[in-house]
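Data deposition worksheet. Section B asks for the primary sequence of the deposited chain exactly as it was used as input, without tags or linkers unless they were present during the calculation. Section C holds the resulting structure in token form. Section D is free text for depositor observations; keep each observation to a single sentence. Incomplete worksheets are returned to the depositor.
Section A, Depositor: J.P.
Section B:
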Amino acid sequence: MDRKPVKSSNVQEVGYDPASQKMHVQFKGGSVYEYFGVPAAKHAALMASDSPGGYLAQHIRGLHKFQRLS
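Section C:
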């Protein structure tokens, strides 16, 4: 899954697969998390947000299952 850089103090890159609704988030510290069941509209909103890290905290983390990949 290709990841695209975002302007954020916490998040470095975000990747998304609309077919599986999986989103990969790489943080500036290097860790990568995979979130499941993320609708395309949420991914688009995160990418358009002035604060991708804030959007992630409010609308994705805690609402979608996830696993740490690295």
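Section D:
The beta strands are 3-5, 11-17, 22-27, 32-35, 66-68.
The chain has two helices and five strands.
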